[in-house]
Amino acid sequence: MFPDKLMFSGKEQLIARYGAMFKNLQCVKSTPIKRIVHGKYVIDQELSESCSQDPEVVDKRGEVVASYEINNAKVTKVLFFRGK
User: Fold this and answer.
1) pTM over 0.70
2) Closest by Cα among 21, 20, 44 to 33
3) CATH number of the domain to which 33 belongs
4) Using alpha carbons only, how large is the chain's radius of gyration in Å?
5) pLDDT tens series, the chain, 84 aa
6) How far, in Å, are 15, 45, 55 from residue 81 at the CA level?
7) Could you give the number of structural domains in the chain?
8) Which neighbouring-strand residues pair with 60?
9) Which of 6, 65, 73 is nearest to 30 (CA)?
10) Which residue range forms the structural domain that includes residue 67?
11) Alpha-carbon distance 71 to 25, whole Å?
């Protein structure tokens, strides 16, 4: 919970948390609205959409800001910021 608490560390923890959720969804899509690239950092404002029943019917939609740190061509840190 930014900025005070780290929720996950490592790919395994991320897969354990989100893997089952993604398997149960019929569609998951994230589309960048705005992107800022500054050195090794990429900051995206994204539209996130998912379908729980029908892959043609989006039933959850929201905006999120994601910050990615890139090192040696790999994402090494991700921060997600959600509005209330």
Assistant:
1) yes
2) 44
3) 3.10.450.50
4) 14
5) 666 778 888 888 888 888 888 888 999 999 999 999 999 999 999 999 999 999 899 999 999 999 999 999 999 988 888 766
6) 19, 9, 26
7) 1
8) 50
9) 65
10) 11-81
11) 31
